[in-house]
Amino acid sequence: MSTASGAGPERPYRVALTGARTFFGERLIAALEEDPACEHIAALDIRPPESGRTKTRFSRLDLTDPTSDEQAAKILADDGIDVLCHLAFLAHPSHSSSWAHELEAIGSLYIMNAAATAKVPKVVLRSTTAVYGAHPMNPAFLTESHRLRGEKTSRWVMDKVAAERELARLRRDCPKIVCTSLRFGMTVGPTIRTWWSRMLSRQSVMRLMGYDPLMQFLHEDDAVAALVKAVKEDHPGDFNIVGPGTLYYSDVLKLGGRVGIPVPHLMGYAFGNVLFNLQLADAPGTFLNYLRYTWVADDRRMRQVMGFSPRHGSREAIESFYLSLARKQQQAPAVSARGAV
């Protein structure tokens, strides 16, 4: 493994990652397959990744299984893993919240236990700036030292907070392990699909009357680049990974030609919960806090300590998403027409 200084030739390294079939798992595997210094990739998931080639070895691992910590520890030790990337997180809230809690919160406990047992030199967690929560008393820019308040009524967010706490426990109990948390901002782009992208794919989007929070976005390519950097270099600690610049929510909607449907916030929470329970909305009503209050993250530690600078700004990231969406919508009628001939 190389250090942050980059001095000298890169040493060979071996990587294991959970969530191999997630967007970030597939993209990270593809990047590591191209890196000559990476000699082995242990892909852990319930299904094999599509991007794995000669370096990748798939091992089935279900993080809802109470024995998954023992299974993972054996794989990590047997494969001589240098870096463990924990990426097994859902891209959007699930109606099966109990199962999701077992996967993300309890699964993170199992994975950190496995890392401690196998004495893995480094663990990288893919987190989110949503763990800070959207609250009226948030500072203008949330630093990594800000308390992780999350959203108490959202299990999806609080499961991410629980994963952060498990990493903090590993850092405390095993100080020799390099523990890195990458807190991604709202990640968008041509191919990633999250609850944000699903919501913004709709022509009409809910907005809360009297509120227009600042937002920041991260391009999917920059998110993957940050993951690769954390794998190849040692950067202990927590890092907000966000694109430069901010946009008001109203401007985000205008860029995509979206129509904002104004809703009183008290009505919006209840209405949102009803729509989510009927599977007509992408997130429950409590997520409207993220459309009500500003939760912009400070990027100085990312730039000054980690030495990472995203190539795309917030505006570029959301524009690339809208552009790819428009292209897909233009192609769909053409495909339908050809099929009718």
Which tags fit this structure?
two-stranded parallel sheet, alpha/beta, 341 residues, Rossmann fold
Structure description:
There is one protein chain. The chain has 341 residues and is α/β, with parallel strands linked by helices. It has one domain: Rossmann fold (3-Layer(aba) Sandwich), CATH 3.40.50. It has 10 helices and 13 strands. It has a 7-stranded parallel sheet with strand order 3-2-1-4-5-6-11, sandwiched between helices. Strands 7-10 form a two-stranded parallel ribbon. A two-stranded parallel ribbon has the order 8-13. Helix 1 crosses helix 6, helix 2 runs parallel beside helix 3 and helix 3 runs parallel beside helix 4. The radius of gyration is 20 Å and the shape is globular.
Helix/strand class:
alpha/beta
Proportion of β residues? 15-25%
What is the H level of CATH, i.e. the homologous superfamily? NAD(P)-binding Rossmann-like Domain
What count of helical segments does DSSP give?
Answer: 10
pLDDT < 50 runs, ≥5 residues? 335-341
Sheet of most strands: 7 strands, parallel
State the end-to-end distance: 56 Å
CATH class: Alpha Beta
How confident overall, as mean pLDDT? 91
- CATH fold assignment: Rossmann fold
CATH-defined architecture: 3-Layer(aba) Sandwich
What is the count of β-strands? 13
Shape: globular
Order of helices and strands: EHEEHEHEHEEHEEEHEEHEHHH
Spatial strand sequence of the major β-sheet: 3-2-1-4-5-6-11
